[in-house]
Amino acid sequence: MDKFVVNGVGKLHGTVKISGAKNSCLALMPATLLTKGKNNILNVPEVNDTYTMIKLLKELGAEISFNNHELKINTSNVSNFVAPYEHVKKMRASVYVLGPLLAHYGYAKVSMPGGCAWGPRPINLHLEAMEKLGASIELEGGYIVAKANRLSGAKINFDVSSVGATGNTIMAAVLAKGTSLITNAAIEPEITHLEHFLEMMGAKINGIGTSTLEIEGVDELMPAKITNIPDRIEAGTLLIAGAITKSKIGIEYSHPEHIESLLLKLEDSGAKLKQVDGIIEINAENMEIKSTDVTTSIYPGFPTDMQAQWIAYMTLAKGTSTVTDNIYLDRFKHVPELKRLGADIEMRNNSAIVKGVNQLTGAKVMSTDLRASASLVLAGLAAKGTTEILRIYHLDRGYQRIEEKLQKLGANITRESTKEY
Ligand code: EPU
């Protein structure tokens, strides 16, 4: 097992390139199950969730090579339609194979995901949508068994905007017979990119990138080639690394519009931002961090996947800030760990009340989930002394060797193997 050892309070400098987006890739990869043949996805991040999805798709019969950030996925021989517990328990996004398998092959058996480290994450909306499209759904031995001769178009309105349920439903509707109308669809960039990929395969989708989608089902989809978008959460995490260490750094990132809400909050907190030639430069030199409240919401609001990192940042602000998560009410496992570094945070329901302190101090802390781990790395960069972050396998699920990017920016961070966990 690996840990990070961070010696904090050094300044960062230089520029790093942002990797491909994990959450986009996790939707694009299963979408290839809708086709028979050779698909290509470029700019794929080398993160553990990518490898888990590769294993799952291979188990279904896909032939896959992954070199130089390019995935070649040949779905010609897909013949198994079961997503086993061992994959789904590791990665909830495995449930994305449900829609494509059901739509293409009329059958899918997918292990029911359990709770996750920070609380319940239901999939009722995915299942209700499949039923509306004509599937029969049963629960057998912990597995969802979904069957349909051919799905048929339907009207689906999501009570709650859900990235995963929207992705699954679109992937099912594109091969259904007739027209589907999906309202209150998620408009996160990862979903819009999935819609583009499906369109390249021959899907007929009206309203791409909006919350109302009209999908006219087709009989067949053809393999396609797409370049994945860069990871907006990695971009945001590294910008906060610059801000929390009061440094001037740049990130090479081509989609600033995907992180507009975060950029505005960074400016509110006192950081200066400049965008030139595909680089976002953040300048936080000699800055006093202003306390800045955030409330997470669906895109284009402030992302829940940046909440933990923002709390880490606010621990060093002047004054008190309130950070509220309205998407996942219990996603605050990082708070007790940040307190071990000297942060002053009080929880009130789904809000963290963060009173800025002058200095954090290094300590041993534990990663509990992906974004919590990132917040500990950020806090460690700004803490005096040594911070050891255990269980960084959580972080490796979604950040491509973040320590190398931080080292390139001059941070004192190393990965070490340890027997402790
Ligand atoms: N929800 C339901 N029923 C459902 C599905 C969702 O009530 O059937 C609720 C959830 O409980 C939550 C809200 O809807 O309150 C939104 O959840 P959503 O379905 O949008 O989340 P997801 O698709 O499971 C994706 C990302 C998450 C990210 C969320 C929110 C992937 C693979 N995962 O999850 O990413 O936090 O959207 O933006 O795309 C991460 O990268 O660290 C991560 C957890």
Low-pLDDT ranges: none
Structural class: alpha/beta
Mean pLDDT: 97
Total of helices: 14
Distance between the termini: 8 Å
**Shape by Cα distribution:** elongated
The biggest beta sheet, please? 4 strands, mixed
Percentage of residues assigned to helices? 25-40%
What's the β-strand tally?
26
- Major beta sheet, strand line-up: 23-25-1-26
Could you explain the architecture of this structure?
The chain is of the alpha/beta class and 421 residues long. The protein is 30% helix and 27% strand. The protein has 14 helices and 26 strands. The chain has helices at 22-31, 48-59, 85-88, 98-105, 124-132, 163-173, 189-201, 232-244, 260-268, 307-314, 334-340, 370-382, 393-396, 402-408, and strands at residues 2-7, 13-17, 38-42, 63-67, 70-74, 82-83, 107-111, 136-140, 143-147, 155-157, 179-183, 204-206, 212-216, 225-227, 248-252, 272-276, 279-283, 294-295, 320-324, 344-348, 351-355, 360-361, 364-366, 383-384, 386-390, 412-417. A four-stranded mixed β-sheet has the order 23-25-1-26, with helices on one face. Strand 18 (294-295), helix 10 (307-314) and strand 19 (320-324) form a beta-alpha-beta unit. The longest helix has 13 residues, at 189-201. The chain is elongated. The mean pLDDT is 97. Uridine-diphosphate-2(N-acetylglucosaminyl) butyric acid (EPU) binds next to helix 1, helix 5, helix 6 and helix 12.
